[in-house]
Amino acid sequence: MSEIKIGIPLHGKMAARAFHQPSFRERLKEGGFRPLYFLSPVYYRSFDFDPEQYFELQVEQYDKQYQKHFLLQQLRMMRRFVVVTDTTDLRFREMVEGKLFDATLLGMSAQMTYVSLLRRIPGMGRLLAWMERKFYLTHAHDKHFKENHIQCVLTPGMGNFNFWNEGNFALEAQRMGIPAFAAITNYDNIVNMGYRGFNPACLAVWSKQMADEVIKLHGYPANKLEVIGAVQYDRFMQSLPASREEFLRSINLDPSKKTIFFAGGVNINHYFEIYRLFVEEKSRIWKGAFNFVVRPQPHGKLLDSPGWRIMEKLFTQEGVYVSNPGSVDASGDRALELRLDLGLDEGPDELSCLLRYSDVLVNNFSTMGLEAAICDLPTIHIGYDAYTFGVRFAVTTGFQQRMTHNRRELRLKASKVAKNEKELLTYIEQYLNDRSLDRESRREYAVSECGELDGQATSRLTAMIKHRL
Questions:
Q1: What was the pLDDT predicted at 328?
Q2: With bands split at pLDDT 50, 70 and 90, how would you rate the model's confidence at 300?
Q3: Are 406 and 379 in contact (CB under 8 A)?
Q4: Do 137 and 183 fall into the same domain?
Q5: Is residue 362 classed as helix, strand or coil in its secondary structure?
Q6: Which of 83, 156, 321, 325 could link 298 by a cystine bridge, Cβ 3.0 to 4.6 Å?
Q7: Nearest to 22 by CA among 465, 426, 458
Q8: What is the pLDDT of residue 241?
Q9: Do the Cβ atoms of 271 and 362 come closer than 8 Å?
Q10: Is residue 284 domain-shared with residue 260, that is, in the same domain?
Q11: pLDDT greater than 80 at residue 329
């Protein structure tokens, strides 16, 4: 039987790390698929790829069309907010805050008014998406579909916020009679990323909880979705190539000591606070005898800031191991980061080792908290802001704690939320004394979000596509 050629557009970091990791590509091959990847320019132009298997995703054409049409901009902006949740309410206010000093008072008032009114009208999402499909057609990849005999398409997301390019790609395929499938790539996509831009032939979701949310919030038909698990977390089910002792020694840490792992967000202020507490005043924590690992959020808002460059230097000077997934060298070269995104290098998955071999994670309500639960790593979320001067609300812990997916009962039950420095120190002491605390809750939370954690999500995804074809 000949291979099934499947087109996969990859624009963002999360999608690349889910759909281009070596294990995913291997499972596709085992399932009888030949993936043809359409990579965002930043990926495609950075390396030499096989021209028969890799193509450039025409992001620049899509961006040019978007900038040209004011109505298209408004349709997409509205579509982000018509899925009404606590998170989208917060994102709407964040948008207003961002434009407050740039827009005219009348213009801002008008936009706030019509968005507030229209977003709650039943069926508004379907109408907005229909208008985009009807009036803003693209044909950027028609030639690629024909010449390469692509038989189906798999996209991350459904053309909702942050997945517009992949959505355009899927719509082009559908207009040519090619079925387009979609798979969710993060646990907050359904409640946070707005209404879909296209209707997949079938949608792959992680869990029953996610299936219920997409049916309720998006009006999505139950007979066009399947629960398969989280593809990108299949790797956490694989055995690690190095023992705890071998791994810690490889990054110049002491295996005889407990390891505290801090994974931060985009708010640079948190890193200054963490440096003060875990480096300058480390004697207050576990008698000062612990390994400390810092992993910054791989986002330009943080990594491109002068503040992070200072903090990274300070941490490394004090013997802290900085696990930087977005390293940029002095010349501005991002090759290491991009190679990591695409899984181009063989070798151990450092994040998997950190999540498996650390003793406690300190976090700011990010996806890392879920990944820690999957790996049975105790987690403490920082629920206070030591420094708030000049900080926009969207990067505060108050903002994070009000988001829909961060308020779930199981998420809060599976971890600790420190409301002040004293509580943070207390929770660290508790978990370092007994890592098994909250173990059952961590497992329950992980399963509620991810469904089956058996390392077979990719196999179920390929089976879903073949069955629906």
A1: 45
A2: confident
A3: no
A4: yes
A5: strand
A6: 325
A7: 458
A8: 87
A9: no
A10: yes
A11: no
Q: Is residue 42 included in any domain, yes or no? A: yes
Q: Which domain, by its residues, includes 421?
A: 241-450
The chain-wide mean pLDDT, for the chain, equals 91
pLDDT for the residue 287: 83
Residues 446, 460 within the same domain: no
What's 84's DSSP letter? -
- Is residue 49 in a domain? yes
C-alpha to C-alpha distance for 339 and 341, rounded to whole angstroms: 5
Number of domain units in the chain: 2
User: 122 lies in a domain?
Assistant: no
Least confident of 42-51, 61-70, 172-181, 319-328: 319-328
104 DSSP 8-state letter:
-
Question: Among the residues of 226-367, which ranges form H helices?
Answer: 244-250, 268-275, 300-303, 306-317, 335-342, 350-357
Query: 223: domain CATH number?
Result: 3.40.50.2000
Mean pLDDT of 240-254: 93
Contact 373, 407 (CB under 8 A): no
Tell me what percent of the chain is helix, strand and coil, each rounded to the nearest 5. Answer: 50, 10, 35
Q: Does a structural domain hold residue 210?
A: yes
39/10 Cα distance (integer angstroms)? 5
Give the count of beta carbons closer than 10 Å to the beta carbon of residue 374.
21
Per-residue model confidence (pLDDT) at position 348: 67
Residue 257 and residue 348 in one domain: yes
Residues paired with 37 in a beta bridge: 8, 54
Q: What single-letter amino acid sits at 461?
A: L
Shared-domain flag, residues 188 and 215: yes
**CA dist., res. 469 & res. 459, Å (int):** 16
Using alpha carbons, list the distances in angstroms from residue 242 to 24, 174, 239, 344: 22, 45, 9, 20
Low-confidence winner among 323-332, 424-433, 449-458 (lowest mean pLDDT): 323-332
Measured between alpha carbons, how far is residue 137 from residues 10, 148, 195 in Å? 20, 21, 19
d(CA 362, CA 251): 19
